[in-house]
Amino acid sequence: MEKNVTLIALFAALIAALGLIPPVSLGFGVPITAQTLGVMLCGTILGARRGTFAVLLFLLLVAIGLPLLSGGRGGLGVFAGPSVGFLVGWPIGAFVTGLIVEKWRGAPLMIVAGVAAVLGSIIVMYVFGITGMAIMLDKTLLQAAGIAMVYIPGDLLKAGIAAMLTSALATARPASVLSRLNAQ
Amino acid sequence: MISLTSPVKTRAHGWPAGAKLAGLCAATVMLFMLQNPIAQTAVLAGVTGLYALPGRLFLITGLRHLRMLVPFIAVIAVWHLWSGAVAQGATIILRMLSAVALANLVTMTTRLTDMMAVVRSLAKPLTRLGLRGDVLELAIAMVIRLTPVLAHKGNLLAQSWSARSPRRAGWRIILPFTIIALDDADHVAEALRARGGFDALKES
């Protein structure tokens, strides 16, 4: 149990530390942060349950007032803003990502982790993010989706990185990719 | 680590955190029911008044926290000026500003320890589902401690990268960074177990 809780706390801290990396601009002015990469890694490396807990722990720290979101944001305000849906989608995205990596053993890990990151941490997360934006900004789902689309290229890039990292980690340290270990 | 609680002491710092949070929930629900731009303007004026009460520094800090909304305000403003539904656009922007500002106000006037007390009492019913409050608190403390440690190790990796390459390190250091982090987790878990693990929490 000590090991599991430490890993959960560590990955929550990892999401926070990735938020300190300055955002990169993808040519057309949309800033992308490394923070959602941390959420993807929670799913692909820790697996569904632990990954979800790590993300929830991180969000709890943000909610009680620590400026851990990229750009030093935090506090209750981020949960009242237009991007609240994405934050709600984070733990669910991590869960789906982790679940796919745990269950789908038939293909190379690079492909599995990539598909899992796209399905869980992009599609699932955007479903929640777009719904939240539609409610907060009083738009239809389609209109909100249009606004949210600007972040898709950056997230696809991050899913690719998460896939490469997970398969590289599995080569270097198979025991560290807990989502693939049978003993939970 | 610096929390977002304002160092400018206000009277609201002394109010019970649970009451402030419940009030915030009620106020946010009400904000979403107001569909009238004039009423929303009045609310935002009231919220701005609350920020102005403790003085200039508090107001400026509060405004700085709202900067994250600028891109959304710009998108909504352009959208509604173009579509002609200006009153609706104004309502959306005013409501968004008030909702986020009110939530930030609670964060700025509540100490981390008071928030933790709320978390502790909210976590109590979850004990039945197997969540241990003392373990949760330890985990929160670990994240607060580990974040600067990880950031420092990431910086060291970036430095050793830039000592060897003229290019930016970028994502290439994330793999060694993750491995270092996983090693740290092993060491921390070992150290916890060596000190009696989570069972020792019960006795203290």
Automatic annotation (TrEMBL), chain A:
Keywords, sorted A to Z: Cell membrane, Membrane, Transmembrane, Transmembrane helix, Transport
* GO CC aspect terms: plasma membrane
One GO molecular function term of this record is: biotin transmembrane transporter activity
Q: Which InterPro entries match?
A: BioY
Topology relative to the lipid bilayer, per the entry, is: Multi-pass membrane protein
Chain segments annotated as transmembrane:
51-69, 76-101, 107-129
Q: Where in the cell is it found?
A: Cell membrane
Q: Which domain of life is it from?
A: Bacteria
Entry-linked Pfam families: BioY (PF02632)
Q: Name the family.
A: Belongs to the BioY family.
Q: What is this protein called?
A: Biotin transporter
Species name for this entry? Yoonia tamlensis
Automatic annotation (TrEMBL), chain B:
Which residues span the membrane? 12-32, 38-59
Q: Any idea which UniProt keywords this protein has?
A: Membrane, Transmembrane, Transmembrane helix
Extract the InterPro entries matched here. ABC/ECF_trnsptr_transmembrane
Q: How does it sit in the membrane?
A: Multi-pass membrane protein
Q: Which GO terms describe its cellular component?
A: plasma membrane
Where is the signal peptide, in residue numbers?
Answer: none
Highest taxon above the source species:
Bacteria
Give the subcellular location: Membrane
- Keyword Transmembrane helix in annotation: yes
Cross-referenced Pfam families: CbiQ
Where along the sequence do coiled-coil regions lie?
Answer: none
**Family assignment?**
Belongs to the CbiQ family.
This one is known as: Biotin transport system permease protein
